[in-house]
């Protein structure tokens, strides 16, 4: 059987001495303050994306709008779930989730969009998903083994953002060419 790198008695003593740190132990290998900042930026991104998808859901009009609007609503719900997971992780790490509406868009990696046309809405949502994919890929790589739990949260979000991008690309491809589809 493999031995622990640190004597179990030492681990137990540290756990008792630093009980107020919750899940953060000496084994935590990331820059906690930077991780909390990155998590709050991702939280802002997810909130902005939720709001953008909600706006697009309510304002989508036209002959082909029903299935597209349904996709916008589904994505809005999933982006809200992402925001909830990020806020939970921030609190778990001893931080405070930043929901300040005055600074949401400046902290968000994605932009808010008020496009009026269906194709433009889809394109702007696809751009935002691609931004999230690029950002979250970098975050996963940056976290490495320093914070595997936060890395897994971002890996899960990344997989769903990739699914969203694929959904949106599919919508663009299915729209008639006179609406801007392929």
Write structural notes for this entry:
It is a single chain. The chain has helices at 8-17, 32-59, 65-92, 104-107, 118-143, 148-174. It is mainly α and 182 residues long. The protein has one domain (28-179): Ferritin. It starts with 7 loop residues before the first helix and ends in an 8-residue tail after the last helix. The relative contact order is 0.15.
Characteristic key phrases:
Ferritin; 6 helices; 182 residues; ferric iron binding; ferroxidase activity; mainly alpha; 68% helix; iron storage
List the helices and strands and how they pair.
Blueprint: H1 8-17, H2 32-59, H3 65-92, H4 104-107, H5 118-143, H6 148-174
User: Percent of residues in beta strands?
Assistant: under 5%
Distance between the termini: 60 Å
CATH superfamily: Ferritin, core subunit, four-helix bundle
Low-confidence parts? none
Question: What series of H and E elements makes up the topology?
Answer: HHHHHH
SS element count, helices: 6
Mean pLDDT: 92
The rounded Rg comes to: 20 Å
Q: What is the top-level CATH class?
A: Mainly Alpha
Assembly category: single chain
Q: Which fold name corresponds to the CATH topology?
A: Ferritin
CATH architecture identity: Up-down Bundle
Tell me about the largest β-sheet.
Answer: none
Number of strands: 0
Keywords: Iron, Iron storage, Metal-binding
Protein name: Ferritin-like domain-containing protein
Domain Ferritin-like diiron: 29-179
InterPro entries: Dps-like, Ferritin-like, Ferritin-like_diiron, Ferritin-like_SF, Ferritin_DPS_dom
